[in-house]
Fold this sequence. Notes:
The protein is an alpha/beta fold and about 725 residues long.
Amino acid sequence: MKQLVLVGGGHAHVQVIRRWMMRPLPEVRLSVVLDRAEALYSGMVPGFVAGDYAAPELEIDAVPLARRARARVILAAATRVDADARHIELEGRPPIAYDVASLDVGSSVRGLGLPGVRDHALATRPIRAFVDRLEARLARASATPGSPLRVAVVGGGAAGLELALTLRARFQAEGREVELSILTDEARLLASHPVRVARRARAEAERREIRILENARVERVEKDAVLVSGERLPCDLAVWATGAAPPELVRASPLPQDDAGFVRVGDDFQVVGCDGLFAVGDCASLDAHPWVPKAGVYAVRAGPVLDANLRARLHGRSPRRYRPQRDFLTLLNMGSGEALGAKWGVVAAGPGVFRLKDWIDRRFMRRFQVLDAEGRPAAEFPSPEQMGMEPMECGGCAAKLDAASLGRALARVGAPPADASVLLGLDASDDAAALRLSGGEVLVASVDAFRAFSDDPWLVGRVAAVNAVSDVLAKGAAPRHALALVNVPAADRSEAEETLFQVLAGVRAGLEPLGVSLVGGHTTATGDDLFVGLSITGELPAGASLLPQDGARLGQALVLSKALGTGVVLAADMQGLARGAWVAQAHASMLRPNHAALEVAQRFSASACTDVSGFGLAGHLASVLRASGVGAELELSELPALAGAIDLLASGLRSSFHAQNVAASAAEVELRAAERSELLFDPQTSGGLLFCVAAERADEAVAALHEVGDRSAAVIGRLVAARPGAPQILAL
């Protein structure tokens, strides 16, 4: 398989991904590297400032879009490109290799290093941060009593002009008095635009009482002022829109750059002197056309050419040449439902131009928004079924044998011979074994394995490690050593080697922060699926007691350390039905180890504990209740859920293992309420700890869990007397 890697979710790349969705190339694996799941369409940001659009309307969620293209998604920041080694370095994890790669990572803004800019100004790049911070900064900006709010927009290009105009409209709609200024170090406003356009733009700004200061070089930004050419301009809010600067990824990479620091590319978007590496959008500079501005319209038009040239490079064909147009349709949002437009020397302004801009922007966005603002499938987008995407069996802990079959098989094997050294063994129905060694020490051991839940082998390896360690932690032991078993899908030698490297790097990333050493293992290479397993051994600290499953006592409270929902979120992700933010939160939850949760459980004298994994909350709780001879009342409203899980379950989506959990728990659970009840059966991968503590200390234990990072931890129920002949779990 050839490896095509897209770094960034800019305007050109989302077009490539959509085209790949409709027409993929066989024998090519597409990977998309994203530091954030959502890419924001810059053309609609001024409309957001004016109040024309809500924030979700600006977003292109690249994760479900990439999943529909059957692409691998890596949610990590790219930190450096090594074109000689042909790999992309990533933050916090090993680099990934490429045969062909493309960069579409946007830009920063000029002048951020000037004194006070980072501390006091609101920078327009990165766009996501600008949108997220805008409302808070506008609310916090306060004028001197009896005086209007003083706002300075630094930058006289299209971005600065639009922001000044739309801020004026925003303040006017809110009834706030404002003095607005545009500061530019150029000789005129819109210096890169035709004079006729700049003249009309200036007239529109002045008609709205916006002051324009030209040849004004900003030297410093203070909390309440901007220093301009030696003079102090009082200012309550400074908006920094000074034009594009190279992003950090480009600055950190040994790539050919122009005088301004942008990546130099040819007419085909291939980086000069770097075979197989492309760059496009604001991070790149066309060698033959240095006049091309950093404008979204060029990035949008570059998309089809980039797609054609990536395919051509993968097939060994000649590329297309990109010929940028000098005269493009200029559309600038002026706020209050008006816009300014220019084309072929004709300049117009008013509501009709805004309607045209709005229609163009919304039509562009509909092509890439797989899900609507609530996370439901967008009506305009084809469903997975319409696209021929067949349902896939879930991986992770949702790919295990059901509890009933496991129980029957163990029963048929029969009880093991008596062994005084075995404290927890086959007959204990526990996830870990405990053995007393000849010197009196207690060894706790467990083995766990699953089929990959993602096509990112590093992520699978790290989650597999965190998940396997939890079985030992749930017994109150300190994990020390690990052995790995990895089945790498049958592939050519270099691809198999890279997959194994990524898995083992992920495994070590999960183990080593916990003080666990990977000491060996075994590999196989068969079939189509990646399979990762670990055997973990640990020690029971001196003076400590095992945390058994049979220690639950009447009147105690049930505390759950992590939110539920990984099963349904991962299932939705495979079909391109999960928002990127939901997937990112699920990944973060699975990657968070349970060692801190164990410390809290021990500090509050937990008497029983289990981790929650493939059998779901109901299945694992039932094991504790059976072993302890008690029942439980659960408050369904208190069950913590990952973002998106409730909505996905309500839509009818289920992990492929969900139905087996429902069937296995049918005799264990009595439902008195329906809302959130499906969370009980959702199979968890690398879930949290469920432990029992005295009721009067439960809230304090939850607060302690919040402090150590388990922000979703909650008291979910209480232990009651078992009801003879009735289900053990009463869900209220």
